[in-house]
Amino acid sequence: MRVKVVCVGGGPAGLYLAILLKRQNPSHDITVHERNPEGSTYGWGVTYWRALMDRLHAYDPESARAVEESSVRWHQGVAHVRDQVTRQPGDPGHGIGRHRLLEILAARARSLGVRLEFESEITPDDLPEADLVVAADGIHSALRTRHADDFGAEATEGRNHYAWLGTTKAFDSFTFAFAETEHGWVWCYGYPYDDGHSTCVIECAPETLTGLGLDTLNEADQLALLEKLFAGILDGRPLVTGSSAAAWPTFRTLTNHTWHHGNLVLLGDAAHTTHYSIGAGTTLALEDAMCLADALREHGAGPRALAAYERQRKAELVSAQSAARLSAQWYESLPRYIDLPPHRMFALLGQRHSPLLPYVPPQLYYGIDKAAGRLEALRRLKRWLGPRAARALHSRS
Description:
Elements (H helix, E strand, L loop, with lengths): L3 E5 L3 H13 L4 E6 L10 E5 H10 L1 H9 L2 E10 L2 E14 H14 L3 E4 L13 E4 L6 H5 L1 H4 L1 E15 L6 E8 L2 E11 L2 E8 L1 H7 L6 H11 L1 H4 L4 E2 L9 E7 L3 E2 L2 E3 L14 H19 L3 H30 L9 H9 L11 H13 L1 H21 L1
Parallel strand pairs: 1-2, 1-7, 2-6, 4-9, 7-15
Antiparallel strand pairs: 3-5, 4-5, 8-11, 8-12, 8-13, 9-10, 10-11, 14-15
Helix pairs in contact: 1-4, 1-10, 2-3, 3-4, 10-11, 13-14
């Protein structure tokens, strides 16, 4: 059955949904409205893992090949703590420039007959007639905000502040760097997204932000201070910002009680956000698009499809949302771990999604985890006992 769909927001989720719907039925009338000019985007690079690439190949091999060919890869993580460096092998990671990703998806959508309307802002007061309107317009979604009570939107502010920057230093691994200052620790997550650029996310506690004056310095002075703190990993390369570095927001974790209202449905960051430290935002948005496209194919563009989409994605997101919450808490509790030997601290950084870790002394947890790695029976016990013990300890605290 032919349907008319309007996607509000030309990010990865909206574009990929348009591609999948056109592949299902070329007669579908699909339009994507993006308020910004074509080629303009925020952010630097996005990161993903092999499991997403396998799913992209299954849903649309042509765009998947282009994404894979434009991505860089790494196979390990490296942590710089004070003057010490430690490395650990890990699952292969992938990075691609956000601009390049959007370019690929926009070209593929056009080739399938999707209408892309750039510099076209759709407001809640001028929604076009359509069988389905998709709010893919991000965490600040105007369409969701208009119906916030119906969606049951809730946002929780994190404690730490962050800045999203880029650099012309191309890291060879997913890189963590922890710099000690007289006002506390500042740390960086860095990963490459092409042969000459990397993303650098800088984070610190609020007392460190104000102690260093990062909340009041102008952009040039901010970047100069950060380049000095992270000179050991930048190798003389500059940090760059695409917008004002002075904002230093805290991360907002967004949830919604329901994801659809009438013929309006939420997609990607408009529906949910997960802390950037797990590197899953773009992956989850693309998976939303896959799930919604599947539901529309099976049930048509009606309430049954939207309910099935919401039900499935909420269930699938439980694990990622838990991991994101625990990851953010790990960094908020950095003083608890930072004085461990670097290889142990890095090992616990890799275990930060464990619900038991916040309640067990770090040295003891490291020993248990290392033993569990050698004994299958202990590993099974740890998987079974961890969540149960964490819930009990959390209730008691």
